[in-house]
Amino acid sequence: MKFSAVLLIVPEDDENRAVDIVKRAGATGITILKGKGLRHNDRKTFLGLGLERKESLLLCVVEKQLAMRILRTVKSELKMDLPGGGLAFSLPLDSVVGIGLAQIQAFQREVADDL
């Protein structure tokens, strides 16, 4: 079985919605990291301070075929093609340790549903 890491960078306000969408699309576990987003064209505010947007980074390791399903679902439901909608991508993983048998079986069921 081959795995991919799916990463989503979404506005903090959309975090819960993104988690629900990713779970519905087949992810069995998600790690959430908090951060701040800076852009090349940030507007200056009072006293020259820039606005920093609070972001959430969602990371999940899934079976390779599920990665594309997750990305398609997230793109459409979170409107990621609009400005400020976020960013999502996947990376292939060569080696993975720590995935239990129950998760592998869940991935196999999800992939079988697509066939």
Tell me the layout of helices and strands.
Blueprint: E1 3-11, H1 15-24, E2 31-37, E3 53-63, H2 64-77, E4 87-93, H3 101-114
Antiparallel strand pairs: 1-3, 1-4, 2-3
Assembly state: single chain
Q: Would you tell me the structural class of the helices and strands?
A: alpha+beta
The Rg value, from CA coordinates, equals 16 Å
Give the strand order, joined by hyphens, for the main sheet. Answer: 2-3-1-4
Distance between the termini: 16 Å
Mean pLDDT: 85
Tell me the fraction of residues in β-strands, as a range: 25-35%
Unreliable stretches, pLDDT < 50, 5 or more residues? none
Specify the helix fraction band.
Answer: 25-40%
What is the number of strand segments? 4
Helix run count: 3
Protein described:
With 115 residues, the protein is α+β, with helices and mostly antiparallel strands. 33% of the residues lie in helices and 30% in strands. It has 3 helices and 4 strands, in the order βαββαβα. The chain has helices at 15-24, 64-77, 101-114; strands spanning 3-11, 31-37, 53-63, 87-93. The protein has a 4-stranded antiparallel sheet with strand order 2-3-1-4. The radius of gyration is 16 Å and the shape is elongated. The two termini are 16 Å apart. The relative contact order is 0.28.
